[in-house]
Amino acid sequence: MNTVVAIDGPAASGKSTVARGVAQALKSIYVDSGSFYRGVTWWVLRAGIPAGDRAAVIRGLAGLRFEKYLSEQAVRYRVDGEDPGTAIRGEAVAERVSEIAAMPEVRNQVNRWLRETRELGPIVMEGRDIGSVVFPDTPYKFYLDADPAERARRRHAESIAREEGRDVAQVLESLRRRDTRDSGRAEAPLKVAPGAQVIDTTHRAIDEVIQAIVTQVVSWTASR
Ligand code: DC
């Protein structure tokens, strides 16, 4: 069975950069589970399904074509034949994604798609519930965290927030709203999975965090 390294944590905790780096170092496939939820949300917005119309989301999901493929050792996808591209990173999707990701039917479907990616090879998957729900049996679980102010600064440094004219305070506000929704929901809330190693990235260089995780995984693998 292909190995799974699970890297969970809140938005802008450094997960994406770290997970990509770990995947590269371990010659594994990178999977961004949040991008799957963003892809579904992008499709809901484009289909014009009104906020809160859960029945319409569930109906639409049943007929949705979600095709996964590998590109440069990362899993990408098309929704009904289309690649949403950078649209999934914009504020419109960010504001709606927690609500869509809180629906149990959406989570069950996304979890099936996520579990299928393991058939492609060894994977490094980042998210909120990878170690707790998607792959609870993997021994390789990490949880990254960082101060909210530092997370807002990092998110603001990404070009999309600046292009949309948002300042650091607005980004912080949006992150806090999302943290509250992601941690407070009934279904698979953001939390540290049993057995996960917690790493605070506030004052640590990304390369150092990548190295620490790679070293751990290699030493755990050798001792198994
Ligand atoms: O990691 P991200 O910011 O791209 O995630 C987008 C949203 O998707 C986030 O608000 C919570 C949700 N999400 C989730 O509920 N479970 C996951 N495994 C990954 C993301």
Walk me through what this model shows.
With 224 residues, the chain is α/β, with parallel strands linked by helices. The protein has a single domain, classed as Rossmann fold. Helix content is 50%, strand content 16%. The protein is built from ten helices and seven strands. The chain has helices at residues 15-25, 33-46, 54-62, 91-101, 104-116, 130-134, 148-157, 159-163, 168-184, 206-222, and strands at 4-8, 29-32, 66-71, 74-79, 123-127, 140-145, 197-200. The strands form two sheets. It has a five-stranded parallel beta sheet with strand order 2-5-1-6-7. It has a two-stranded antiparallel ribbon with strand order 3-4. A hairpin with a 2-residue loop joins strand 3 (66-71) and strand 4 (74-79). Helix 2 packs across helix 4 (91-101). The model has no long low-confidence stretch (mean pLDDT 93).
